[in-house]
Amino acid sequence: MSSNVERRRMATDETWRVFRIMAEFVEGFELMSQLGPAVTVYGSSRLSPDTPSYQQAVQMGAKLSEAGFAVVTGGGPGIMEAANKGAYEAGGVSVGLNISIPTEQHANPYVTLAMNFDYFFARKVMFVKYAVALVCFPGGFGTLDELFETLTLLQTHKTRLSPVVLIGVEFWTPLIKWLEQTLLEGYGTIGAPDLQLFMLTDDLDKAVAHIVDKAAQQGPLWQQPLLGYNV
To answer: Which residues of 137-151 are buried (b: 16+ CB within 10 A; e: fewer)?
Structure first.
């Protein structure tokens, strides 16, 4: 008897979870639809203000803002804080999409639009759906997860987001060599065009110019529904 009651309770909990998920999507869509062209910036929450990557991210946030883009991050510390800080201090739109996790993540003070998420997958939709480009700084598992999901969507033509720019030649080069030597040449699990899905540079001005050029080519396409997340 008690097991039946427990199963019914669990089923009810799962049903209500669907509504909580829906609420995150609705709130996220309402928030993000306020933006014009936006660029999402990924990177580690653990990098401190005295690191070169943090300082580069501040500059990148400012440059993107000055170029007319809203800057979207995960809203936490580290690279996220840096990019938000650059955009905020440049007088631009600075968006923080935070996540509730037990450790590390706390909201940074440099956001002009903010939302808190319980579900990673809902949050990642917002990162990609409303962005015309992605800038990825050095990071850990979370950053790599976000990067490779975006590359998968591009590879399978499920998103119009372009380009993907990797900042940090020293950090990303070993990974790119592994992609080339192991996945492409060793096992054939990716194709040569897949390695053209991203740009690697340390030159922030070159990166921003590339993003501006691609955004101009897209025209109003950034406003259209995302193919992979057509919700």
So the answer is: bbbeebbeebbebbb
Give tens-digit pLDDT for 123-145. 999 999 999 999 999 999 999 99
231 lies in some domain? no
- Is 127 among the domain residues? yes
CB atoms within 10 A of CB 119: 15
Query: CA angle, 93 as apex, 88 and 96 as ends, to 5°?
Result: 80
Q: What tokens does 162 get?
A: 């372009």
Interval 141-188: pLDDT, tens: 999 999 999 999 999 999 887 899 999 999 999 999 999 999 999 999
Preceding peptide of 109 cis, ω within 30°: no
Instruction: Provide the CATH number for the domain around residue 111.
Output: 3.40.50.450
DSSP string, 111-154: -SEEEEES-HHHHHHHHHHT-SEEEE-S--HHHHHHHHHHHHHH
Non-local (6+) Cβ contacts of 75 within 8 A are 84, 95, 96, 97, 98, 107, 108, 111, 114
